[in-house]
């Protein structure tokens, strides 16, 4: 114990903290990414924002609190944190990056706005429940998703770290304009890649995901600026 106090164990250098999107896959949105970066000795931290088995787990404050708690745990354990958010998680990740120190922020198909606001509920629920899960998000959880976006979508304008946007040109759920318009609000270093042919699931549907991971790796290594 005395030796440990004199020579405290050095924290690992870098980790990726992921914030998942709305739907049934939860943290599994990042399984393929975790596998990719495992070969590079870069840990990918995954967790669930809400309990899919409990339809009453629908309080926005609880969802955000879980994200902040995981953020604090990661900051405590690692010297540098790369924050990645997908879809709804992109909005939450932007909020986290606006109040916590991170190396960079990476947003994949962030849900700052929708293709058709009048059809948002049907579009999101239909897309989010196509993963053959017997359990679907409840109506109140869908409403909470919308609350999250409404309450935190402007956080992107307060982000000061470098930001990378990745959005598919064929995204059937979140318009590419969501990223283009958010990109304009970032005041610091930023890059936007519109991935030709990419859909909303391009992060994990075994089509172009390795291309995304390679771009993300360049961002992490500081080679995009």
Short overview:
The chain is an alpha/beta fold and 225 residues long.
CATH class: Alpha Beta
Structural class: alpha/beta
Number of helical regions: 8
Query: Which CATH architecture?
Result: 3-Layer(aba) Sandwich
pLDDT averaged residue by residue: 90
Report strand order across the widest sheet: 2-1-3-4-5-6
Based on CA atoms alone, the radius of gyration comes out at 17 Å
Order of helices and strands: HEHEHEHEHHEHEH
Count structural domains: 1
Strand content: 5-15%
Separation of the first and last Cα atoms? 44 Å
Low-confidence stretches: none
Q: Work out the helicity level.
A: 25-40%
What is the molecular shape? globular
What is the makeup of the main sheet?
6 strands, parallel
Number of strands: 6
**CATH topology, anyone?**
Rossmann fold
CATH homologous superfamily label = Alpha/Beta hydrolase fold, catalytic domain
What key attributes describe this structure?
225 residues; alpha/beta; Rossmann fold; 14% strand; globular
Structure report:
With 225 residues, the protein is of the alpha/beta class. The chain has one domain: Rossmann fold. Helices cover 39% and strands 14% of the residues. The chain has eight helices and six strands; from the N terminus they run αβαβαβαβααβαβα. It has a six-stranded parallel β-sheet with strand order 2-1-3-4-5-6, with helices on both faces. Helix 4 (88-99) packs across helix 6. The longest helix has 18 residues, at 60-77.
